[in-house]
Amino acid sequence: MNNTTLLITIAIFAFSIVATIWMFLRADAQKRKEEKTRQHADKILTNKLMAYERMTLLIERINPESLIIREQAGADTALSMHTLLLRSIRQEFEHNVAMQIYIEPKTWALILRAKEEIVKLINQTAKETDPKTPALVLGHSIIEDAPDKCGLYVRKALDAIRNDVNDLFQS
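The structure assignment produced for this chain is given below.
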């Protein structure tokens, strides 16, 4: 075997080793990239689910029936109850507003609409009630009117949340 043949054989062998190592490293890099993408998608899915859970809780907490039951002990007059209810809604909303980045825009719009309709109901009922009336009277009036005046919006928001969560698992 002459030197040229030996050099060609060594070069082919070296090229084969380099090509094999390069293909291995490329496959490993691709595998790491896919794993990172999968982990990122899992994290996003977890955050989205948490956001939808929090939005469900928000809607349930500002729903007039649960809101009034939870807050009624803190007010003695209709005026103080009105103030307390609006403050509670505002606090609940502010606590959860950042979650909107994970919520579908149409669903977020329905959540906002439900909140607005609940506030509107509370304000209208408070306007029709003597401010010095006992808080329970205002609470009772709000609960009585809630199904007709804001119940539809609450149901639409909750249905949209359920649909979005179902869609997350079907895609």
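Interim note for the steering committee: Helices lie at 3-62, 64-71, 78-96, 105-127, 135-149, 151-170. Residues 42-170 form one domain.
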